[in-house]
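Q: Predict the assembly, please.
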Amino acid sequence: MSATPEPSLQRTPLYELHVSLGAKMVPFAGYAMPVQYPPGILKEHLHTRDKAGLFDVSHMGQALLIGPDHATTAAALEALVPADILNLGPGQQRYTQLLNGEGGIIDDLMVTRSVSSDDDGSLMLVVNASRKELDYAHISGSLPDDVRLQPAPERALFALQGPATKDVLAKLSDIAASLAFMTASSGKVGDFDCHISRSGYTGEDGFEISVAAAKAEKLARRLLAQEGVQPAGLGARDSLRLEAGLCLYGHDIDETTSPVEAGLAWSIQKRRRAEGGFPGAGRIQHELAHGPTRKCIGIKPDGRAPAREGTEIFAMLGERIGAVTSGGFGPSVNAPVAMGYVQAQYAEPGTPVNLMVRGKALSATVVPLPFVPHRYVRKG
Amino acid sequence: MATERFTKDHEWIRAEDGIGTVGITDYAQGQLGDIVYVELPEAGRRAAKGEAVAVVESVKAASDVYAPLTGEVTEVNAELAANPALVNEDAEGRAWFFKIRIADAAEFDALMDRAGYEAFVKQES
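A: Predicted assembly structure:
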């Protein structure tokens, strides 16, 4: 219950701000991160769904993939991920996965094509903090001579999430309000030069804002001064993404799970399905055609007891059919929610299952994801 | 008059006429954050000192609540089961978890008093 993390932990450019706001700092992926602020996870979560939450996600890995032209850079990345990068328009963003040779997920990431023709041939990548060193080595080791990876540790990253964010940024930014979901552009927020995308990982409308680390605290204070904006920590980020049915690396996806098993087949576009040419294409094309043997599902316990990660899932006849990979309490659902994997024949929504919690079988139901409808704004 | 004692696992116990009322401390609820679920033992259960007999769950995690001493559970707090957030509102009052018939008064006396517990918390945080 110690509140002071070890001194060896890295700090984001907002560390001092978090501490001054009264955040409870915890170790996460080698960083000292705010798990919650004084209002607590429940209120931060509900405030984000109601108005706007500001999350520091500077621990995540931001990097540029730089080649001579878009086709060359896209081809280099397509050798590692199953998404269609070639047909990504300027300023468009896509969610995809770095895959290993067996089609397992090394990491999941966001890829954005630069909006400007000046740096055509550049792709911006955002990867998970816990995986960034491994990702960078993996990507760098696979690139052709004319494409290079340039990590950007000198940049901070915020996620401003919630229905009020568009009005907040409309007042502060020249371009934010014109962006549609999963598009991005360079622009100003206040007086600060930023890279802004309309995206996030909460299921709400929102933006991710990349800014020079040296400017990060000033920009964060400016955003927090806006009506309706409150800081939100990793705890709320986790409960928000779980309600939104979004996979968390190291929990719902890992090197053994394929994107098809994880319910991420939507992120593999038609051309790549047909052509293959990505690691593990054999397994993934087979799973797309015939269905995977196990599937990621939503699980709603019938009672009030949360089922945590690792909870075993049983069929009504007593056979063990899978396990919970993320589970907790959904503040907006006001009930326990979970995600997990089960054998494909039990994955149909409505299927009754039992969860073994502290030696007791608790009844639960397979439900469609997400638990809370996404509220993305498709048109800027 | 009731006297109170505390454990290193952050439970409080208040004894009156051989019955101890048990809950978690205000410090513990502050550390756990928003409580969303509690699981209480059945009345009649016999527990040994240090045995996990109840569970308290925040948004993030589940924590065990231990029997501060040996005895038989005589009553549980139905109001708490229905409204777990009571722990955050009044941890050392209305949010008691269970009552236990104290088998050995010496076990009670050996626990920390409030000053001892406060010193323990200071040292731990």
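Chain B has a mean pLDDT of 96. The two ends of chain B are 32 Å apart (CA to CA).
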